[in-house]
Structures are given as structure tokens and as C-alpha cells.
Specification:
globular, 8 helices, single chain, six-stranded mixed beta sheet, 42% helix, alpha/beta
């Protein structure tokens, strides 16, 4: 561009940055490409924020990933499996589709991870604590009235909830739909910052977060690079379309089920009136 100065006219070269709409990191294929052994320090920062504790050591041992050649397979596995501080196992799953069996599936994941720690001949106290972190794009019925972004579940005595049977069981449910409210209440909370990034990296809130959280800024830059990769963009779009189609089917099923229920009730009421 031309720049006029006191000494006359000079030619200054500038580079205009292209606006890129960032891929959604909550989509499983993007999430797994962001948080993995290659991005260990970024993953460590993310987990520290979610657990709100210092992570001294971290081992990332994902069994499988959604592969680029089979982007439509969910595989039914966890998105991120970790060993933390040589004392606990942490598994993070991002769940975008509402499922009536969701809570049962979390219990299955927890029990599977806990049980596979113990081999024949081992004592039961060898098993480490297992924490499941479920990040959902929907509200589950049991958390609706609590109206919080995060709920934490463990094993307590019914009439004396301060009494914990064991600390090896923990399930955390983070609801993406409530992050904006949580972030507005506490903008300096790193968990709120990371979850806000997962919910929408293109938001004005994330631009604000990037100014004070260097790791979230690095995550945004990494996702930007993915977003400029045509193949990755196409795969992420396929995943997002599949998710939207499944949501539509689920909602249609609910509507149809509701209508059938109404018809059956009306028929029963008519019979009673005769």
C-alpha cells in the first residue's frame, strides 16, 4: 500500500490476514486432533483447568481415534484417556448427541477403566481413582434444577452426605449450554475460559480470553491451522452434518412418540366415556 510521509511517498508492503471461521473443537475429530500426545503441554493445561489441580505428570494413552479415512465412525470409545500424577486415571468424553442411556454409558466407561487396572492375583486396592469428565452439548434431566455448568458425582452415604464411601469414583458433567453464564460470573476462572473455547472459538468471549490465557491462545492458533486444512475442514463438516442429522432424528422420534402417546390416551378416555 502507499504510505505518505514527510520525506515523500514510500511503498510499504502489508499482509492482510484472511478471516477464517474456526472449526468447532467440540466436534470429536477436531477435539482429538487438538488434545493428544503431540500437543502434550496444551493437553496438560486443559486438564489442569478442568480438574482445578496441578498436574505434575501426564501420560496420554488413547486406545483409538476417529480416523481420517473413516470419519463417520464414532467407535464408541473415549475421546481422551490419561494417567495423571501417577495416582489417578482421567477420561474426557465430548458428547454432542442427547442419549437416553447417557448416564448408564458413563457408569460403563468408569467400571471398564477401573476393572482393567486389576489383573489376576492383584489386590483390589491397587486400582487408582478413575475420573470421568463428560462434556455435553445438552442438559440431562438430573442436572436441570441445579442450573450449574458443572456437577460432580461420587459415592456418599444417603443421610450423611459428608461421609464418602470411597474417593476412587468420580463423574463430572460439564454442560456447554451453561458456560456463558458461568464465564460472565467469573471471567478469570481457567475452567470457564477453556470450556468457553470448546463451546465457540469464534466468539467475542474467546477473543477476550486470548488476551489473558496464553494456552487458550495457542489452542485457537492450532484450530485455525486445522481450519485452513481443506481435508480436515471437509471431515469436520461431515461429522457436524452427521451430528445434526442424528439430533433431527432424535427430536422427530420424541415428537412422534408424544403424538402416539396423545392418541392412545384419547382412545382410552373415549372407551371410559362409553
Amino acid at each position: 500500500m502507499l504510505k505518505i510521509s514527510k520525506g515523500g511517498v514510500s511503498l510499504k508492503e502489508t499482509k492482510m490476514e484472511k478471516e477464517v471461521k474456526l472449526l468447532q473443537p467440540k466436534i470429536d475429530i477436531v477435539f482429538q486432533s487438538l488434545f493428544n500426545a503431540k500437543n502434550k503441554e496444551l493437553t496438560k493445561s486443559f486438564i489442569e483447568a478442568l480438574l482445578e489441580e496441578k498436574v505434575e505428570s501426564i501420560v496420554i494413552n488413547n486406545e483409538k481415534e476417529i480416523t481420517r479415512d473413516k470419519p463417520m465412525n464414532k467407535l464408541g470409545i473415549l475421546d481422551l484417556e490419561l494417567d495423571i500424577n501417577d495416582k489417578e486415571k482421567v477420561d474426557v468424553e465430548v458428547q454432542l448427541l442427547k442419549n437416553d442411556e447417557f448416564t448408564y454409558r458413563l457408569m460403563y466407561y468408569w467400571s471398564r477403566i477401573y476393572a482393567k487396572q486389576i489383573q489376576r492375583g492383584d489386590t483390589y486396592n491397587k486400582a487408582r481413582k478413575v475420573v470421568i469428565i463428560a462434556i455435553t452439548d445438552f442438559e440431562i434431566d438430573v442436572t436441570k434444577e441445579l442450573k450449574r455448568m458443572e456437577t460432580i458425582w461420587n459415592v456418599r452415604e444417603k443421610e450423611n452426605p459428608e461421609k464418602v464411601l470411597t474417593d476412587v469414583f468420580e463423574i463430572r458433567i460439564i454442560n456447554l449450554k451453561r458456560v456463558r453464564e458461568a464465564y460472565q460470573k467469573d471471567k478469570d476462572n481457567k475452567k470457564n475460559q477453556w470450556v468457553m473455547f470448546l463451546e465457540d472459538p469464534n466468539s467475542k468471549e474467546v477473543k477476550e480470553i486470548m488476551e489473558k490465557n496464553e494456552d487458550v491462545k495457542k489452542a485457537v492458533i492450532t484450530v485455525r491451522e486445522m481450519s485452513e486444512d481443506e481435508k480436515m475442514e471437509r471431515l469436520a463438516e461431515l461429522r457436524q452434518k452427521a451430528i445434526m442429522d442424528e439430533k433431527a432424528l432424535y427430536n422427530t422420534g420424541i415428537r412422534e412418540g408424544t403424538e402416539i402417546g396423545k392418541e392412545l390416551r384419547n382412545k382410552r378416555n373415549k372407551k371410559r366415556n362409553y
